[in-house]
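The records we work with from here on pair a chain with its fold. The integers have meaning only within a learned vocabulary of local backbone shapes. A complete example follows; check for yourself that the lines match position by position.

:::
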Amino acid sequence: MAPGMVAEVIETDICVIGAGSGGLSVAAGAAQLGARVVLVERGAMGGDCLNYGCVPSKSLIAAAAAAQTFRGAGRFGIAAAEPAVDPLALREHVRGVVAAIAPHDSIERFEGLGVRVIRAEARFTGPAEIEAGGMRVRARRFVVATGSRPSAPPIPGLAEAGYLTNETIFELAERPEHLIVVGGGPIGCELAQAHRRLGARVTLLEAFAILGKDDPEVTAVAKARLAAEGVALREGVAIEAIERRDGRVLVRLGGAGAGEVVEGSHLLVAAGRRPNVEALNLQAAGIAFSPKGIEVDAGLRSSNRRVFAIGDVAGGYQFTHVAGYHAGIVIRRALFRLPARVDTRALPWVTYTDPEIAHVGLTEAQARERHGAAVRALTWPFAENDRAQAERETEGLIKVVVDRRGRVLGASIVGSRAGELIGPWVLAVGQRLKIGALANAIFPYPTLSEVSKRVAGSYYTPKLFSGRTRTLVRWLLRLG
């Protein structure tokens, strides 16, 4: 702003900083409920999910699955073939999906809802005011929804060698000859398998256990598929240094791979994320924060009672559906003054490998730690499901943990369309249902969803076919 000029001052009810999934949900909901809303975004509308995360990654995974269908056609009596992958056309496919969804998150849509959109970086100038694009915004409530970005581990030579992240890998115009992936979490595993299916050699490096947050019995199935498809999985390895030499990436290993050097054409770092807080000048507003993000209470309110934080920047689970859930809580608290609180007891998540992994509630280990030996773990294999047999997708299982009274504590699924199958178990955990609610439900035949009924029914099998029950049946039959 030129010296002597007076900044425009905007008075509003709610100012949302960040136009990702959570911020857009708050802005749209508040505006449609009659509140005055200002939305500030320094980058692309739609945030990480639309532009660099969920949408492009699932688009790439879908393309990779199509390629794999060619290779696996022989199991149906159809001649298998190695697919020809066009990297430029693949990139356009990903861009096309993003473009198809973008209008829903566009400036035009939100301005049509009555939201004032400011395309600039926001910084707090006080406890009730921000500056953005030469304007000052004073609001009754602020919602910080600035998300997170990929973080890079402190590996010697990493910055000099150069690397890809989820913000850059979808713009590749060539197929990697050998992709080295650092990080064995969901993002690393999803992109490792996708690029392997699209024709690249792939090595996945993980310092601890691959997919370590999920149940080991479940992850073993997914890891076996990745290995069978040719992804080189390396667990328990440390990375001592990285360098680029003659256009190649050289990764020197320690730990379980001590002395080994992995050579590749491209390097992808998928080893965590950090909250976007640096530019916000949070100190000026009296907002407490840490390297994990803005510190909030169970109602998502920060140390400044005017300011809420939602989504990744609030330091909790980093999922798009969590940001949307947070948005609903803030709407209830900020507009209706209701005592809404975060409850992640029934929070589901899905890893979009093939087979998919879906989870809600407690794992078996967590359940036994909290509830002791009375916990029962029930499993049912996909191989005993008729639809899975018909589609030749028999790898997988469902695992459900219940307490001594049969109440559902958690569920994990690994198998075809696991993300679609987890829904009933989210309801069961959230509503504290007993296993009988699923066992007594009628599921259509033949569907994969029958695995839920079968695993629930297995809870009653020991009693149903016990000697005592057989004696009772024989006695009742004598009555005529």
Notes: The domain at 348-464 is CATH 3.30.390.30 (Enolase-like; domain 1). The longest strand covers residues 8-17. The chain has three domains: 8-45+106-149+274-336, 158-271, 348-464.
